[in-house]
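Troubleshooting entry. Yesterday's outputs looked truncated, so today I'm pasting the complete records for two proteins to confirm everything comes through intact. If either block looks cut off, that's the bug. Protein one:
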Amino acid sequence: MSTLHLEIVTPETRIFSGNAKFVVVPGIEGGLGILPEHIPLLTEIHPGELSVTTEEGELTFAVGEGFLEVRPDRVSILTDMALKEEEIDENAAAEAVARAESEIGKGDLAGEELATVQSTLLRSLAQLRVKRRNHS
């Protein structure tokens, strides 16, 4: 089976650079599967689970908001967060979810503050889903 080159980059570092047989990205309208020779595409991604199938096996990442660029032989993911399952601190993510839900529940946030808290909530929930799915 042919492969495509995958790059996952955050503002801090390159998280992954290598060949993949299949990539599933959390797109704006649900999971988006990418195989080699996919048509060119540029779209937004949302916090969720990123799955990468390589020759060696499956890799799973929790990703935040960002962008996906697809070319027939290459996929680039630019995101504000990408964590491998083993890098996720489940307790810290659960605490972040509780704090964000508490802040939102107060009802006194608006505008940019509300968007920031909601973004934190979504990134933390993505981390919990990845961590708990692979440990159930």
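Protein two, checking that the full record survives here as well:
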Amino acid sequence: MCAFCGVMKIIGFVYRDGKAEMVLKGDSCLLNGRKPMFVPDSTEEPGVTECCILRVSRLGKEIAPRFASRYYDAVAPGADFTALDILREAQQHGRPWTQAIAFDYSLAIGEFEPVPCPTLQGKEFAGGELVTSPEEAIAEASRVMTIRQGDLIYIQRAQAPRPVQKEEIIRAVINGEEKLYCKIK
């Protein structure tokens, strides 16, 4: 979190058409503390993609991938929610995806664990392949903008979002411990 303005950036690397695309979310997108995710009235088709969330620990710009591991100090499992119907329409008409991906409480965050951690190795996080490595994500984000302590970078799994239903529970269990719990309402 910025010491002067109270604002942090949430930078995402999402899986679209077989590659990683960088997106931004506002801080109102964060959902933590085992709170439920309420499906917005604007969508009939909510979806979710599992992700890995990095907590940025220092200021950086134009970071080389070989130094990127020095710029985050913790990782957490996450669930990135998408309004699939709105996303499809935006893509068909060449419009921005903001309404489909950056609605309130669209990024559920689990418990952070310090790095190095055995659940994150290269492009693998808790047994699933990420759309890009943490080092490449930090390098790419820092080429576009300065990253600061408290910023979050999330990296989706290399898979399309799957539909979710109301009352479904999204969980991440890592090494026998529940690190993420989120009920869809």
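Both blocks look complete. Sanity check on protein two: The first strand starts at residue 10 and ends at 16.
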